[in-house]
Specification:
The complex is a heterodimer. Chain A has helices at about 1-40, 40-50, 55-75, 85-125, 125-135, 140-175, 180-190, 195-220, 225-255. Chain A is an all-alpha fold. In chain A, α3 runs parallel beside α6 and α8 (about 195-220) packs antiparallel against α9. Chain A is elongated. The mean pLDDT of chain A is about 95. By secondary structure, chain B is an alpha/beta fold. An 8-stranded mixed β-sheet of chain B has the order 7-1-4-3-2-6-5-8, with no helix packed on it. In chain B, β3 and β4 form a beta hairpin. Chain B is elongated. The chains are: A mainly alpha, B alpha/beta. The interface between A and B is medium-sized, with 33 and 28 residues.
């Protein structure tokens, strides 16, 4: 009985210590952001590695998600004689949900893992310690530029995903199925609100960018400095950031669109 | 200002993202139809507004001339008070009438304005006097059943007296 209580107590204490450490890292990153942003060339490099290099996977996935949405939407909508509304369905699903969420999941797999592995290896190779020895702050020199690179790249990637997806939906709906192009666009413009739908989608993708990038950096920074530790941290990055994105998405949707 | 060899590509990426947001706002969204034209407010009282919602269109002869601003319940007259923003460029006679109409069979509801004949025009703060409520499907069905039932009621005694001489 006593042993069980001890185990629970130790577990809670360890979890609380984790929460505290990650909060400290988060605010540490924010506190060092002005100096890191002042040396913007580092952030630009990271936007290149995290953003530009993810463009191909984001673009291709967006195109195919748009194709599938248009096909499936048409299948259901034509039963009710409103096949023209397929444009509205594709645009709303992409802008409000699928754009930010799928981009964040892909971003976690494509960019988050590389961040974790890079920082984990730097830690395993004692490069971070070496930097501290030279009075270079690794949070400011290594982590903060990567954080801002991810935060800047993610909303842009989500917007590209949604835009490419809508064009993919157009490709399937208009030339392939033969829905009238004018009705396709006018239904879409009638139903998509710039601030309520597009604006909230951008806010969502910004939140997901912070989440995924931070989880990746945290896992890399706190991993065990061994090959097994780095591989476990990379796995945890994908699992934790995907779960966090999906849970946050539900909460954000409930807050933004509940009315 | 330090520069790196990836700067051009990063610039292109940011421009592409900006273009995507612009595409979403202009081509998929309604930024073009948002207008910031000057408007004037008039209000109208309806017995029943059906499914009318704020931001619904106000049309005259099928052309959008304004939008519904707000809908509230007036507990003095027990009617719905609808505030409408009309575009400054479109003027209507004071005795114009407002109807709540439906686009298509099950489409969304909008307000139809029919111009009257008076010389003076509606100005900001005026109230549209003549209104016609929304058609509520349940009431229509109720009326139909009532009229059927009363038909049956008047037919049944005749049939009974006819059946047994």
């Amino acid at each position: 009985m006593m042993a069980l209580a001890t185990r629970i107590g130790a577990g809670v204490r360890l979890k609380l210590a984790d929460v505290g450490a990650s909060t400290r890292l988060f605010f540490g990153l924010l506190a060092r952001s002005p100096k890191a942003l002042a040396r913007f060339v580092l952030v630009r490099e990271q936007v290149f590695y995290l953003g530009n290099r993810s463009l191909s996977i984001i673009g291709v996935s967006g195109l195919f998600v748009g194709f599938v949405l248009a096909l499936q939407g048409y299948y259901t909508l034509q039963r009710y004689g409103s096949a023209e509304a397929v444009g509205l369905l594709v645009a709303l699903s992409l802008v409000r949900e699928l754009g930010p969420v799928v981009t964040a999941l892909l971003f976690a797999g494509r960019a988050g893992t590389s961040l974790t592995a890079e920082i984990g290896l730097m830690k395993a190779g004692e490069q971070l310690t070496a930097m501290e020895m030279m009075a270079v702050d690794p949070l400011q020199r290594v982590l903060a530029p990567r954080f801002w690179g991810g935060v800047i790249a993610m909303p842009l990637l989500a917007a590209v995903f949604s835009a490419v997806g809508i064009m993919g939906g157009w490709l399937v709906a208009v030339p392939l199925i033969g829905i009238d192009a004018g009705a396709f666009w006018s239904q879409m413009q009638g139903g998509v609100d710039v601030f309520a739908d597009v604006g909230n989608g951008v806010v969502k993708s910004l939140v997901f960018g912070v989440t995924v990038t931070f989880v990746a950096l945290l896992q890399g920074y706190t991993c065990k400095p061994t090959p097994e530790g780095v591989s476990a941290a990379t796995t945890r990055t994908v699992v934790l950031s995907s779960l966090a994105v999906l849970a946050l998405d539900f909460m954000l949707t409930a807050m933004m669109f509940s009315i | 200002m330090q520069s790196s060899r990836h700067d051009a590509w990063v610039g292109l990426f940011v421009l592409l993202g900006g273009a995507a947001v612009l595409f979403l706002a202009l081509k998929a969204g309604n930024l073009l139809s948002l207008n910031f034209d000057a408007t004037y407010q008039v209000s109208a009282r309806f017995d029943n507004i059906g499914g009318l919602k704020p931001n619904a269109a106000v049309k005259s002869a099928g052309v959008v001339v304004g939008r519904v601003d707000s809908i509230s319940f007036d507990d003095k007259t027990f009617q719905a008070k609808v505030v409408i923003n009309l575009q400054k460029a479109t003027l209507f006679p004071k005795d114009s009438s407002a109807k709540i109409l439906t686009s298509g069979l099950l489409g969304e509801q909008y307000i139809g304005l029919e111009p009257g004949a008076e010389e003076k025009n509606l100005a900001g703060g005026d109230v549209i006097m003549q209104t016609q409520s929304a058609v509520v499907l349940e009431n229509l069905i109720g009326q139909f059943i009532n009229s059927k039932a009363s038909d049956m009621g008047s037919a049944a005694p005749a049939a009974a007296s006819g059946g047994k001489p």
